[in-house]
Write a structure and sequence with these properties.
Layout lengths: L1 H18 L3 H14 L4 H13 L3 H12 L6 H13 L3 H14 L4 H13 L3 H14 L4 H13 L3 H14 L6 H11 L3 H14 L4 H13 L3 H14 L4 H13 L3 H14 L6 H11 L3 H14 L4 H13 L3 H14 L4 H13 L3 H14 L4 H13 L3 H14 L4 H8 L1 H24 L2
Helix pairs in contact: 1-2, 2-3, 3-4, 4-5, 5-6, 5-7, 6-7, 7-8, 7-9, 8-9, 9-10, 10-11, 11-12, 12-13, 13-14, 13-15, 14-15, 15-16, 16-17, 17-18, 17-19, 18-19, 19-20, 19-21, 20-21, 21-22, 22-23, 23-24, 24-25
Length: about 450
Amino acid sequence: MNDWFEAEQRAERAQQLCEVRRWSEALAEIDGALEIDPSNMHWVAHRGFLLDQLDRFEDAIVAYERVRGVEADDCELLMALGVDYDRVGRLADALKTFQHVSELYPNFEPGFCHQIITLAEMGRHDEAEQAFYMAQQIREDCPQCFYHMGISLADRGEYERAMYCWQRVVDIDPGFENVRSQMARVYRTRNEPERAKQCYLDAIREDPGDVDLLVEWGQLLVDCGDLRGASNKFRQAIDLAPDHTTAHLAMAETELAEDNADSALKYLDRASQLDPDIADMDVRMGSAMLKLGKFDEALPYLEKAVEASPESIESRLLLGNCLLWLQRTRLASDQFRKVLILDEKVANAHHNLGVCCFLTGDFDEGAEHCKRAIELKPDYLLAIVKLSLAYQRVGRFSESRAMIEKGLETDPENALLKHLRERLWSARLSYYMQRLTAPFRRLLGKTSQ
């Protein structure tokens, strides 16, 4: 009798703790009650609910399945079980459970509502739409149905219809969670940054602590070229969640873009500590080292990056640049040639290979690669300058002038190009003087031997 009374008391305390959202303490109380009376299915179901609040969905499934063995047709239980199946990726089990609910309770709209999202996640979008219309016959203004249908439509690229569904959600329930973030993502996909920014702002106002949204908003600002604004968002995210790996990575990329390589390395180091298995960490570290001019330290990172992803154009370009800085010109050439095998239209690879050719004395091939770089990217000033200088080295001054003029059409205030134009006569004079004096210099060399 005393044991039974204690079990009841602990179950009652669990309920009281639930009301103030002290989930872990409530779970300890319900576990204590079940130790005394493990056959009480109401308490087992309550345990499943508490595990859900603690995001322990696999454990919650075990509890719900145990109750289902006794109360197979309980609607609330089946819905909780189906939702958890969906959460852990057991989509077939989730769908079967929701369909069973709809068979038992054909006028219960949530049974169809949850089928929509599960079918969408399975890629069965036509069936998702059928489930949506079944739900509509029962309740026309269910915001969750419109929300789920919007996700299905967005997944297949039907953005206008998706946005209509999500706008209906806002009209029905202005405080519905996540809908504005979904709208922001679609606006971002459709290259409508101002609308996306407004949706992110609205979403953050609803949930100021949503770190993932802050990071997404920052990434949108990066796309818009607002690196300072992006940095502010990423810093806010890190302040809220110091262990958020993606925020640290995003901050590192922004710092690299602003040439703050020292700061970028600190964020990369922290991200690596949080998750040692981050994809592309070698290329990120190598890139930061390159910007710091630490070429010897960058090299092993970039070699590992290329080894891990032999078809990565970014990794091979960076490795080639590193080798070029280390004056390993032929090895650098190999990397740039491999990039062009992967994609012949990479202007940077043509330019850098052209530079390698000039350094090894192969003017003709170098000139061809620089010209190809300029064809692919007409405003490629670096390639224009290099080609102009190369023309001067072989005495082709009219072509050098043409390159300078082309560059100034792109950037009329470019100081380097103006300097090259002003000094072109001097370069021409120097070239011809060297040619005139070359025989005498050779003769003097023989005489001194």
